[in-house]
Amino acid sequence: MKEPDLLHTPAPGADQFSFHIRECGGGDATCILLHGFGEGGYVWNDFAPRLPKNYRTIIIDFRGHGNSGEDPTGNYGVGSYSTDVLNLIQKYKLRNISLVGHSLGAAVALQVAAAVPHLVTDLVLVDFSLSTELDVSENILSQFQEQCDGYSSLAEYAAWISAKRPLTHPRMLGHIVDNALRESADGRLVLKVDRRIQQIMGTGSARADDVRPILSKISCRTLLIRGRGSAVLSKKEAFDIIRLLKDGQLHEISHAGHAVMVEDPDEFADAVNQFLLGPRTSGGGL
Q1: Is 170 exposed, middle or buried (0-12, 13-18, 19+ CB in 10 A)?
Q2: Residue 56 forms beta bridges with which residues?
Q3: Angle formed by the axes of helices 104-115 and 78-91, nearest 10°
Q4: FRET partner for 85 with CA separation of 20 to 30 A, picked from 53, 60, 108, 152?
Q5: Secondary structure (3-state) at 23
Q6: Alpha helices for 38-103 (secondary structure H)
Q7: Neighbours of 187 (CB within 10 A)
């Protein structure tokens, strides 16, 4: 998987911080992979090489996440992330774009698809919810803060994941443990994030009132993937989202909760590839 210097650019509007992107494949279509809150592009490490051969795949670390730099102004949220992706699309003149986003990344994918409908052919929303229940948000923030506090070893982090996120697939556990942490000044291993990103959860990155009008305007083929055990996206809400879309379909992954591509990477890859290779409507991006 290539990490060309050409694609490591300062995010527009910020004061010289790196915007980390990886690339694989070399087809005439483009697939952009957008991770969730507090994660990084490494959650796609298993999936990216399995995309159809006609795709050039671009994996983004949002600002303040993973190997991207911290925004000195603390400008984190769906709006700024969407602008970063749109600027990337414009700068590299990307076309025939499929967007795959998980949770927060799905909210970003929606904004991008709405902004450039002539460029986006397919949209995959992974366990995306219109709103998040308070207890679920509190649990997400609690786990985020524990990871920021750090671990004494990679083995300790692996044990934490196994205890807190028992559905994590063994293959994905290795990808996460190897890529999610950095060494802090005191020698502890901490999550590769800017702690200030937690403001995203506080302000509500995907509220129903904001998102419903966008969903109804999306014209491209859209696949909503739900983990059957998800505490974030209920089956009822999944059907509500599908009804709002002009060309939407739902796929439920049997052995997964919210982190679908991490918990059942094989069924996830099969579902997405089947969708991407399926029949296309006349609208969108070619």
Answers
A1: exposed
A2: 30
A3: 50
A4: 53
A5: strand
A6: 78-91
A7: 8
Contact between 226 and 127 under an 8 Å Cβ cutoff? The reply is yes
pLDDT digits (tens, 9 = 90+) for 152-207: 999 999 999 999 999 999 999 999 999 999 999 999 999 999 999 998 776 544 45
* Structural Rg of the chain based on CA atoms: 18
**SS (HEC) of 216-277:** HHCCCEEEEEEECCCCCCCHHHHHHHHHHCCCEEEEEECCCCCCHHHHCHHHHHHHHHHHHC
Question: Residue 126 corresponds to which tokens in the numbers above?
Answer: 């992974």
Would you state the structure tokens that stand for residue 5, as one six-digit string?
Answer: 């210097």
Residue 284 in tokens: 């969108």
Indicate the SS3 state at residue 154.
Answer: helix
Other beta carbons within 10 Å of 31:
27
DSSP character at residue 122 = E
Q: Are strands 21-24 and 97-102 parallel, antiparallel or unpaired?
A: unpaired
Check if the beta carbon of residue 158 is closer than 8 Å to that of residue 177: yes
Block residue for tokens 């499929």: 98
Tell me which H or E stretch contains 105.
Answer: helix 104-115
pLDDT tens digits for range 199-240: 877 654 445 557 889 999 999 999 999 999 999 999 999 999
